[in-house]
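Thanks for the sequence, V.! I ran Protein-L-isoaspartate O-methyltransferase right away. Repeating your input here for the record:
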Amino acid sequence: MVVREGMDRQGIGMTSQRTRERLLERLFEEGVRNLRVLEAMRRTPRHLFVDEALAHRAYEDTALPIGHNQTISQPYIVARMTELLLGGGPLDKVMEVGTGSGYQTAILAQVVERVFSVERIHPLQERAKAVLKDINIRNVVFRHADGNWGWPQYGPYDAILVAAAPAEVPKELLNQLADGGRLVIPVGDKEQFLTLVIREGDNFIHQQVEPVRFVPLLAGAIRS
Ligand code: SAH
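Predicted structure:
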């Protein structure tokens, strides 16, 4: 994947190179060590995934609104989740639930072979598609649907990343996980924990990683 040079430079005028480097340093300080993840984050122009009015804040380590009551995930969380997903080795097919702005999708697409991304809010999905096309990311396919049901057609997946929190891990997602596969998902209602689930045959090993705050995983798909 090559991020178009012009795009990247354009953003550097809006947010200094120094600000971007500081984000990378901060991720490292917070314990992110996977070099492929850090490199993907270095070269991905996050300001293109937020509204122009917020572009100057795009390299702060914080979640930002993207409309429709949703947020672009905090960079640290994106890095952490991607790193957890990659923990088992190289990944071919990865499903993402909750495309949102498409930023997490862009990072994933640079470190795995293929991404299958599901989003329930159609306009968000359309915008994410356009940005990914602009920055020349091509190994992603999109589905407008309720991600509680996964995307059975292309499963099983080597890994699944969920960017919105259910009260409990949806059964269908577990079903669509390959043997040895890894699912990274925030789970909980008032208190949420980032959770890593590893499939071993018919057993699912759950591990709580750290407390997090995500928007809820909702039911049904909507057009506007
Ligand atoms: N990683 C995204 C996070 C977006 S917020 C980013 O960085 O931009 C979570 C996203 O999950 C929202 O876009 C929301 O619409 C979506 N979502 C919530 N419930 C869903 C469901 N059941 N199926 C698919 N997407 C869902």
